Amino acid sequence: MTCSLTLLFLQEHGLDFQRLLDASAYKETFRQDMIRWGEEKRHADPGFFCRAAVEGALHPVWVVSDTRRLSDVEWFRDVYGDVVQTVRVVATEETRKRRNWVFVTGVDDAESECGLDQGVAFDWVITNDGDELALGEQLETLLQSLHRNL
Questions:
Q1: What are phi and psi of 19, to 5 degrees?
Q2: Does residue 119 register a pLDDT over 90?
């Protein structure tokens, strides 16, 4: 989802797509403007980015990553019903800091970053704290479930 938002923001503002996808200072320069722009688009049309994310998708299973708001989850559930499986990936704050994450007030506490922290009953919760074996086992269980439901 964020990728579709980023791509649309880039097209509208003439920015470098690859640099907006990384964790560089370039992205941080435009991050608050992008959040504000995204909020304006969502306010006018809550399904705007959801439709952009699935446009042209033809496969029987889609992974729509990086949804950020309850309205995104609700849109997919309303449009696709019971086939929607929600997956939350979590990591401890300690792990996130080891990955060079630094909390920024006004950004990391905005709805774009924590809008799904409450109010969503996720079908799956995957823990990604650096244990590759445990992560692989969790993902394998998820994949097996998806295959059974095809």
A1: -70, -25
A2: no
The structure tokens listed for 72 are 């995104």
Q: d(Cα 94, Cα 100) in Å, to the nearest integer?
A: 10
Mean per-residue pLDDT for 80-106? Answer: 91
Q: Are 104 and 41 in contact (CB under 8 A)?
A: no
Chain segment 6-29, per-residue pLDDT in tens = 778 777 888 877 776 676 677 778
Q: 68 near 2, Cβ under 8 Å?
A: yes
Q: pLDDT at residue 63 above 70?
A: yes
DSSP codes of every residue in the chain: -HHHHHHHHHHHHT--HHHHHSSSHHHHHHHHHHHHHHHHHHHH-TTHHHHHHHTT--SSS-------SHHHHHHHHHHHGGG---EEEE--HHHHHHTT----TTTTTSHHHHTTSSS---SEEEE-SS-HHHHHHHHHHHHHHHHHT-
Does position 31 have pLDDT exceeding 80, yes or no?
A: no
